[in-house]
Amino acid sequence: MSIPPDFLIMIIVAVVISAAFIILPIPHWVMARIQGAKITFMEAMMMSFRRIKARKILSAVSLAVSANIDISAEELEKHTVEGGDVKKVVLTLIIVKKKGHQLYKNDVFESDFKGTILKDFSDFS
C-alpha cells in the first residue's frame, strides 16, 4: 500500500510548519507586531540564528511599545549580547516614565552593566 503524493506533501508541510513554530519565535513576533513594534520577521528569525534569545527580546520590545517607550530591538539585542538584562532595563524605563521623570536609555544600560540599576533609580519612587 503506497501513500498518495498529496497526503505525503501535506505531512511534510505540517512537519515544517510545526518545526518553525518550535524553533523560530513566531508567536512572540506576531505579538510584538500586534503591539506595534517595528520589527520584521527576518530580524526576529536572524536573532534566533545568531543564538540570541529572540523570545526575550521580542517580549521586552512588546512591553516597551505598549508603555510607549522608544527603544529598538537592535538596542536590546546589543544589550543582551553585552550581558545585560533587557527585561530589567525596560521595566526600569517604564517605572521612571510613570513617575514623570526624563531618563536616557544609555544611563539605564550602563547602570544595568554595573549591577546597580535598582539602586541608581530608587530615588525616582
Topology:
Elements: H1 5-23, H2 26-35, H3 41-49, H4 54-66, H5 73-81, H6 86-98, H7 105-114, H8 117-120
Helix pairs in contact: 2-4, 4-5, 4-6, 6-7
Please tell me about this protein's structure.
This protein is mostly helical and 125 residues long. It has one domain. The chain contains 8 helices and no strands. α2 packs parallel to α4 and α4 runs parallel beside α6. The radius of gyration is 19 Å and the shape is elongated. The chain starts with a helix and ends in a 5-residue tail after the last helix.
- Structural Rg: 19 Å
Count of distinct structural domains = 1
Structural class: mainly alpha
Q: For the terminal residues, how far apart are their CA atoms?
A: 72 Å
For the sheet with most strands, the description reads: none
**Rounded mean pLDDT score:** 82
Beta-strand percent range: under 5%
The geometry reads as elongated
